[in-house]
Specification:
This protein is of the alpha+beta class. 31% of the residues lie in helices and 18% in strands. It has a two-stranded parallel ribbon with strand order 1-4. The chain has a two-stranded antiparallel sheet with strand order 2-3. The chain starts with a helix and ends in a 6-residue tail after the last helix.
């Protein structure tokens, strides 16, 4: 997980967005952490926080019956 956080923090200064759609009934707590809505991502390797939130995580089970909500949630943090 820390290697993934390091890569996300490194990519946070680039024109990059990462969209993760969680499929199934697994525990997605780590994906929520990558989404960084509650706390900014910090890279121990780079010794810095992400410059912006580039990850959007959506659990498919929450939106599977509403394609418009799925699109809205998936694209919520993608810059204009």
């Amino acid at each position: 997980m820390q290697k993934t956080v390091d890569e996300v923090v490194a990519g946070s200064g680039l024109p990059l967005s990462i969209i993760i759609v969680g499929v199934g009934s697994a525990d997605f707590d780590q994906m929520d952490a990558l989404d960084a809505d509650d706390a900014p991502l910090y890279s121990k390797k780079l010794n810095r926080y992400a410059s912006r939130d580039i990850v959007q995580f959506v659990p498919f089970r929450d939106v599977y019956n509403d394609p418009y909500r799925l699109a809205k949630e998936v694209l919520a943090e993608v810059p204009n």
